[in-house]
Write a structure and sequence with these properties.
Length: 121
């Protein structure tokens, strides 16, 4: 069973340390101190290999997520940002034109009111 941790908000990665249980044959009486030392060294090497595998897997997962994020950013910069800026420019131009037309209508309405008052009196 792999225990996972979360990095960068949503990236699941293996968590270290990994519990490591070896299936070494156990004997009632070890054959000598060399065998005891060899068994201890083997357990330590196995633990180190497991921790390395976890760190390597976590690094690979992080690197893959980084590459996906870079692709997304590149797509945003190359495609979405220019499209949105273009749409914004069109909307701003339409608003500016509508404001200008509104000013012209107000001036005409003001002239019509002034002309109507002056001619009737």
């Amino acid at each position: 069973m792999i225990v996972e941790a979360v990095t960068m908000g949503s990236v699941n990665r293996p968590r270290s340390p990994v519990p490591c249980r070896t299936a070494l044959p156990t004997s009632a009486a070890p054959a000598g101190t060399a065998l005891i030392h060899a068994e201890a060294a083997f357990r330590e090497a196995l633990r180190a290999a497991a921790e390395y595998a976890v760190a390597r897997a976590a690094g690979d997962i992080g690197e893959a997520e980084l590459m996906r994020t870079r692709r997304r950013v590149r797509a945003l910069r190359r495609h979405w940002t220019p499209r949105l800026e273009s749409a914004l420019a069109r909307v701003e131009l339409a608003l500016e034109q509508a404001e200008h037309e509104d000013v012209v209508r107000r001036r005409r309405a003001a002239r019509t009111r002034e002309g109507g008052r002056g001619g009737g009196e």
